[in-house]
Amino acid sequence: MSRDQNRTSHYDEDSLTLSGTVMLGTGVMIGAGIFALTGQMAEMTGALFPLAFLAAAVIVSFSAYSYIKISNAYPSAGGIGMYLHKAYGDRLPTAFNALLMYFSMVIAQSFLARTFGSYTMQLFGGDESGLMVPILGVALILTAFVINLQGNRLIQGFAGFIGMLKIGGILIIGLAGVLLADSLAIDFTRESEPGTLGNFLGATALGILAFKGFTTITNSGSEVIDPHQNIGRSIVISIAACVVIYTLVGFAVAGNLSLSEIIETRDYSLAAAARPVFGEYGVWFTVAIAMTATAGGILASIFAVSRMLAMLTEMHLVPHSHFGMSGSIQKHTLVYTVVLGIFLTAFFDLSRIAALGIVFYLVMDIAIHWGVLRYLLDDIKAKSWVPVTAIILDLFVLSGFVWVKLNSDPYVIAVAVFVMILIACGEHLYLGSEARKRIMHREHNH
User: Fold this and answer.
1) Nearest to residue 99, comparing CAs of 428, 321, 423?
2) Domain-wise residue ranges, the chain
3) How does DSSP assign 237-254, residue by residue?
4) Has residue 5 got a pLDDT over 50?
5) pLDDT tens, 138-153?
6) CA 60 from chain center: how many Å?
7) Which DSSP helix (H) or strand (E) runs through 287?
8) Which of 182, 253, 272, 317 is deepest in the core (most CB within 10 A)?
C-alpha cells in the first residue's frame, strides 16, 4: 500500500454504542451550558435567564429535526460536512458553512477549557493575575489530545464515566439548590437599563450555544452501532436530558444568588450559588463536578471536530498540508484542531469566545435548514414547515444577539464578519485552484 493510501482516515465501525454516543453529545452540551453561560445570560437578560434556557430548548428542538432526518438517511463520520455536501454539492456553500461549523466547534472546546480554568482557580481564591485560567485550559486541551490519540474505545470509556459522574453531581446540586433556596419567586433588579426583547433574544442565542453540542453526535456516524436509528435517538435523548438539567440548575442559581452576584461571578456562577446552600464544601464539590464536566466536554469535542475536518480534507473541500507529520489525515486534523483551540484559549476571554461561536453556528444552522428545504426534502422524507420554522427562529435570535453585541462589544461582531469573509474568499480561491483541479482529475481517472 502506498504512503498516500496509508494517510487516509480509518473508522472503527460499530465501536460506539447508543449510550456512548449520548455521553459524547451531552459531554459537550452540559460542560458549556451550565458552568459558564448561566452568568452571561443573566447579565444580558436579568431575571428571565432561566426562561431563556427554555426558549433555546424550543428553538434547538426545531433545529434538531433536520439533523435527525439527514442522519437517519446519510450517517457519516463527516457529520455536518457530509450533510452540507449532500445538499449543496461540491461548491462554495458546502465548504464555507462546514468551516463555520468547524470553527464554532473549536471555539466550543476553547470555551470549555477556559471554564475549566475559571472553576479550578476557585479552589485557590480566584485568578487575580489572569494567567492561570488560560494555562490550565491549555493543559486540559493537551491532556485531551493525548487521550484522543489512544482510540475510540478509550474515549468512549472516559466519556461514559465522566458523563455519569457529572450528570449525577449536577442533579444533586440542582435539586438541593431548588429545595433549599430561600425562594423561587425570583425578583432580580439591576442598576442598568432593564432587559429588552433584544436582550432576551441575545440570551436565548447563548442558550442555543449550550445545546449545540448535540451536533457532535453527527460526526460519529460511521462508528455508531446501527447509525440509521441510533444517531437520531442519541440527539433526542441528549437534548431532552439537557433541558431538564439546565432548567433545574437555572432556577437553583437564581434562587440562591442575587442578579448582581450572578453577574459578578459569571465565569463560575454555579460554584458561587453552591456556597449559600452547602458552604465551602459545596463549592469544592461543585468545582470538582465542573472540572470533570468540562474535561469530558473537551474530550468529546476534539473527538468530533477532528473527524469532521478529516472528512472535509478527504472530500477536497479544504486545503491540507502534512507539515512533515507522519500518520493519517485524521491524526493531522487532530493536531490542527488542538493548536487552534490552544490559541483561542490563550488569547480570548469567555464572553468573546461564546459570541464568535454562536454567530458562526447560527449562520451554518440556517444553511443546513435551507439545504433541506431546497434540495433534500423528498430524499429524507421531511416536512417543510419544520425547517422553515427553524430558519425563522434562528434569524430572530441571531438578529437580537448581533444587536446586543453591536451596542456592547462591536469588536467581536467585526471579528466574526472578518473571519467569515476570509473563509469565503479563501475557499473560493481554493475550490477554483489548478492544484485542486489536478487532484480531482487524478482521482477521477483512478
Assistant:
1) 423
2) 12-445
3) HHHHHHHHHHHHHHHHHH
4) no
5) 999 998 888 877 765 5
6) 13
7) helix 280-314
8) 253
pLDDT digits (tens, 9 = 90+) for 280-299: 777 888 888 888 878 877 87
Residue 31 binned pLDDT confidence (cut-offs 50, 70, 90): low
Closest CA to 15 of 24, 28, 27, 26: 24
The pLDDT-based confidence of 406 (bands split at 50, 70, 90) is very high
Cell numbers standing for residue 272? 458561587
Distance CA 444, CA 446 (A): 5
Pull the grid cell for residue 317. 473541500
The one-letter amino acid at 246: Y
Count of residues making up the chain = 446
**C-beta of residue 72 within 8 angstroms of C-beta of residue 227:** no
Of all helices (H) and strands (E), which one includes residue 185?
none
Q: Could you give the CA distance from residue 414 to residue 48 in angstroms, rounded to a whole number?
A: 28
Question: Residue 37 carries which side chain, given as an amino acid letter?
Answer: L
Alpha-helical (H) ranges within 34-48 are: 37-45
The domain defined by 12-445 folds into: Amino acid/polyamine transporter I (1.20.1740)
Taking Cα atoms as reference points, which of 51, 156, 76, 108 lies closest to residue 358? Answer: 108
Burial (CB count <10 Å: 0-12, 13-18, 19+), residue 102 = buried
Question: Amino acid letter at 276?
Answer: P
* Residue 70 and residue 380 in contact, taking contact as beta carbons nearer than 8 Å: yes
Rounded to the nearest 5 percent, the helix, strand and coil shares of the chain are: 80, 0, 20
Per-residue cell: 178 = 431548588
| Phi and psi angles of residue 409, each rounded to the nearest 5 degrees, phi first | -155, 70
DSSP letter at 55 equals H
> Is 427 in contact with 95 (CB distance < 8 Å)?
yes
Burial zone of 328 (CB within 10 Å; 0-12 exposed, 13-18 middle, 19+ buried):
middle
Going by pLDDT thresholds of 50, 70 and 90, the confidence category of residue 7 is very low
- How far is Cα 369 from Cα 69, in angstroms, rounded to an integer? 11
pLDDT over 90, % of the chain: 24
Q: Are 241 and 174 in contact (CB under 8 A)?
A: no
Closest CA to 56 of 40, 69, 72: 40
In the DSSP assignment, the letter for residue 374 is I
